[in-house]
Amino acid sequence: MEDLQLLENWEKKSAEHQKLYKNWLSRVNKNKVLKQLPELHEAAFEKIDCLTCANCCKNYSPRFKTPDIKRISKYLGMKEGVFIETYLNLDSDGDYVVRSTPCPFLGADNYCSIYDHRPSDCQRFPYTDEDVLIKRPQITLKNSTFCPAVYYVLEKLMANG
After folding, report:
1. Distance CA 15, CA 5 (A)
2. Less Cβ around it within 10 Å: N or C end of the chain?
3. Model-level pTM?
4. Tell me, what's the pLDDT at 161?
5. CA distance 125 to 127
């Protein structure tokens, strides 16, 4: 019950806690946190169903690295250049990202049409089971505003001290 209450109005609570998260991430004991992540990651996904949310796919784009482009274009039976031209743009960091949101591979049912071949960023998202959560606090803060799993893990970590 406590976890369900935690997830009620999570977007509002996450917005209110951004400064807390930022301060906490800047002074956290990295080793202590890393030990807790696998269990908290599992707990988050026992309570959160990505298929009911898909905020990540609806509003943001992963980076499509060269191996991703090769794998996905092959799966789709397209030449890499045509795949890039059809679906991707270069962002200000020089990374390939989807041309439009929501992601063109996201279905109305929130299923990904290239799920088994999706970019590595998508496979790893939301990074709640790896050191990116601590090492890249700006990404963690941004992700906590649209991903309930990141919010959940941060709240649990802070509660654990």
Report:
1. 17
2. N
3. 0.92
4. 72
5. 5
